[in-house]
Fold these 3 entries.
Entry 1:
Amino acid sequence: MNIKPLLLALTISCAPMTTYAKDWSQEPLAAVQQAAEQGDVDAQHNLGFMYAEGRGVARDDQQAVVWYRKAAEQGHVQAQIFLANMYVAGRGVAQDDKQAMFWIRKAADQGSAYAQFMTGMMYRLGRGVEQDDQQALAWFRKAAEQGDARAQHNLGVVYAEGLWWTEQDDKQAVAWYRKAAEQGNSAAQLHLASMYYEGRGVAQSNRQSYAWLLSAVAHGNTQAEHFRLLLLKELSPTDLVNAQQLAARYIQEYQPK
């Protein structure tokens, strides 16, 4: 099973939602607008989100940027991340990786695992900052240690391949792949399956490999389906039943987060 591990690409997505002093998401637009204009940072962030997504108001990316910026300047972590994403995508503002890096780094310095992962990707790709794999690795590690599944997967790749002046270590690769796999990360599940198949860093087990491949397939990984069909030919009827039972547990327990 020759699976070449790849680092996850930079993705533009919403940060995990955080609970703040007041939840403005269910309030009418007029109330949110009034509170935002009075300086309520959570209301400012929520108003930006409403404009960005067209929730209760016509979508307006420029207004979204205005309100995200007001909240971001007050230190609101999610607003800083969302504003960075607007700069990455060029939504409501000219595309600008340096500004994106400026705001994502502010959120990362406040301890956001999502922002730390994004900072690592910006360094990895040299977007808005000079390309630096050692900085990328440092930020991935920060995010991984806080539980970010994509960063955990990337650390698994680094150890599996011995990248970026890191000593190749299959056991460390398996440990990080497993952490991400148990959070429903399908890429990590695929690569963990490969480690089981090859007996790298773990006792060789076609049953475990097939179970993780099935879990990855269930979570939308099309590459895993190709390898599942290949491995299927090597399983005995008994091993297949056992692997399917194990996969059913993995699929139920390890949903994407």
Entry 2:
Amino acid sequence: MFTSFFKRTEEHSFEVLIKNEREKLYKIAYSYVKNEQDALDIVQDAIIKGYKSFHKLKEKKYFSTWITRIVINSAIDHIRKSKNVIYLDQEWLTPERSHENQSIISMDMEQVFDQLKPEQKTLLLLRFYSGYSIPEIAHMLEKPEGTIKSQLHRALTKVKEKLENGGETYGSNGTEY
């Protein structure tokens, strides 16, 4: 009886839950600030905030989305305070192309990602980098699913427009073969 009680309690302890999420949280924070120390500071700040309000989380099954949201908010707060440039993590896009093409695509993606609003970056990261579903993102951001879908569509449309014909940097000056 005591063994199963302690196992159940241990499975849902903050420490155990955060250990399962720490790598993902770091990657999300890093994708916002592109700086290891800043990303670590953001994750640390988010963990402290999460620990202080862990008792308010009613359903532990939502821990991942809950703590992810705290990291995103902490990253956005950090950016607002420091006014740092936001860069796209190079690992975010891994096309199976030659090294040269991958470099060009990465530069274009980084440039386009820098031009997006923080809310658009958040949606794209949650959906395509972290793999959350539309309903999970809606729950995390406390917005209706329809709003998430339309905002995600607008963000993707903006990215597509910027990347059409090889992107702003290479599209107009590119040569035809």
Entry 3:
Amino acid sequence: MTFADTFKGTILAAAVAFGFAGAANATSITEFDFTGTPVSQSEGTAFGSPLSATFSGVTEGVETSGVTAFGFSERFYQSSSKGKKGKKGKNEHTAYSASGVNWNATGLGLSSDQDNGKWWHGGAVEDQNGRDYLVLELGSADWTPVDLSFGYLSGGKNYEIFGFNGDLSVGDVAGFFASINTFTRLAGDNAANVVFDTIEKFQYLVLTTKNDHKKDYFRVSGFSGDLVAAVPVPGALPLLLTGLGIFGAVRLGRKNKPSDAPA
């Protein structure tokens, strides 16, 4: 056996072994429907709605772990005031708060102070005098978003979708708004249904309207994602590869050893 034969045999065995290791990353598409009833909701409320709600998913016909939805809002306020010598002025400030989550046959929305006692556009995610942010917590940072659908969407179709890995908690207003600048923008193409063009994995999706204050609004009816969970490589695999390498080296050494037999 030549050196090339030995080398090829060792490489082939290693390739087969690493092929099994690559196959250890199992993937599965899970679909979430937000037009039905959640499996659970928080006891705490905001603006008459639960602070969070969890919806179960379906993977290959089997019910699986869920997505938890919660939200936040920012509002811009102006008030008139009189300064020195009776001159009128304007005081501007921004208020931040946690929103309540609501749902109906068209999907998920948010309840906030902008509803004024009734849900504006049915409690949609909107940007009347500020922006709402709907957060979908996927449970781990192993999710690649596949697609998302809207139950309804305003005529301008002005929305943005972001991905995030970190720590976002229900009701943590300060933590959420401190993290906004680190979000990864994934979509905002004015399409009624979104197909994500990314292989990145995220723990959270954040949906909002564009920051143009054009009174846009939407509800989210569904989402599907690819859960890519790494399966541990068998502990014997490195040992196997080492053994194959040593075996090849020994055989090569024996083959090249000078013979003691007379010519």
